[in-house]
Amino acid sequence: MRWRKRHLLVLMLMVFSITNPSLGQSLPEKTPEIFAIATYVGNDIQERSAKAFIKSVRELGGKCRDSKIYIILADPVNFPGDSLKGANVKLLPLEMDPEFTKYPLAIKAFVAAQVEKIVKDEVASLAWFDPATLVLNSLDELDLENGYGVAIRPVSLVNTIGIAPGSEPNDYWTPIYKELGLNFKNIPAYETVVDEKPIQPYFNCEIFSVDPSLGIFTEWSKLLTKLLKDEEYQENVCTTFQRRLFLHQAVLSGVIISRVNPENIKPLSIKTGYPFGQHEQLSIQKQIKSLNELSAIIFDYQWEKNPGWMDLIPSYEPLTEWLTETFNEYRK
């Protein structure tokens, strides 16, 4: 009887310790995923750029360095992304109407929506990075703490797309405003980063982040689909290269301002998404003194276009050595 009581007591203690991890050895805490990254690859240059980008996240990304990186493959037959495989890198084939491949950069909306569906219940911040971008420091600005829905900055240039605050939307913007129920009289004004012109909401979408639970990317792809399939709009309105090139960006801007209150739009500083190719066009006040100051940079294929890229903006060790090594790997 005593033997049975002793063993029964031991068994009860074992069960109690399992259900109460504070007794005995505690179970390791499970860290929630707060951050995920989305981008895409469709050719050799983009694959080499993505490889450098992954390296930059893992080695320089601060608390986000181990985040999952979703890379959507636009041409998995010819560019399966074998060089990109690694821990927490997810390679997936693109889900998009092949008809849309003829529209410049429309792919971004469909890539973003595809990843958003996967992570919407898992992460608080889904960061978008264009191909040919690099992380150079911690990505704190892209972390949507304190209830922000989006972290983003205005476009660099008005071009022929942006419209002045208080102006009625033109034929290009009217379908976007109408579909989203926007009133041009009730929306905030912004200022372009490079030419410093006032504009109605028109955001740069090369580096930014959203709360995926808001469905911003899904709505982006739906409205863009509708406009791309609108033959009259395409034939009579999208008549210039810029209007075709930046349609994805105009649609995203409308979706953001329709779904997120202005006070919940976190403004990115120029140090997160610095326009490297437009450095010399920036005002002196906005020009950085060294690459070491930056969190993330938009190279926009300057590694291909500008052989003297390292002479444009100085950098200091250990970043200089890192950039040299990464660039040499890219060229291989």
Descriptive keywords:
332 residues; alpha/beta; Spore Coat Polysaccharide Biosynthesis Protein SpsA, Chain A; seven-stranded mixed sheet; three-stranded mixed sheet; 34% helix; globular
Describe it.
Strand 7 and strand 8 form a beta hairpin. It contains eleven helices and twelve strands. The N terminus is likely disordered. Helix 3 runs antiparallel to helix 5 and helix 5 packs across helix 8. It is 34% helix and 14% strand. The chain is α/β, with parallel strands linked by helices. The chain has one domain: Spore Coat Polysaccharide Biosynthesis Protein SpsA, Chain A (Alpha-Beta Complex). The chain is globular.
Short description:
With 332 residues, the protein is α/β, with parallel strands linked by helices.
